[in-house]
Amino acid sequence: MATETYLYQSEYAGSLMAKGEAESVLKLLSMRGIPVSDDARERVLSCGDVATLDAWLRWAIVVESAEELFA
Predict the structure, then answer these.
(1) Cα–Cα distance for residue pair 5/10, rounded to 1 Å
(2) How many C-beta atoms lie closer than 10 Å to residue 1's C-beta?
């Protein structure tokens, strides 16, 4: 049985994944007590690239400031 992937489904799934990753980045920074500026928060929340968000999530474990995520 062949499985078909429709563009709208993959875009929708991708947007849900990106939203979850972005929220995880911000939650991890918050749990570590790292302040997040409005600009940094907007940058994270507006990013739709799951690979970038995944990288930021990994960096959020060790950075000392939210701005370091984007360096």
Answers:
(1) 7
(2) 2
* Model pTM score: 0.82
CB 53 within 8 A of CB 21: yes
Judge contact between 18 and 53, C-beta under 8 A: yes
Other beta carbons within 10 angstroms of residue 40's beta carbon come to 20
31 exposure class (CB count in 10 Å sphere: 0-12, 13-18, 19+)? exposed
Average pLDDT of the segment spanning 40-55: 95
12, two tokens: 């929708």
Chain length of the chain: 71
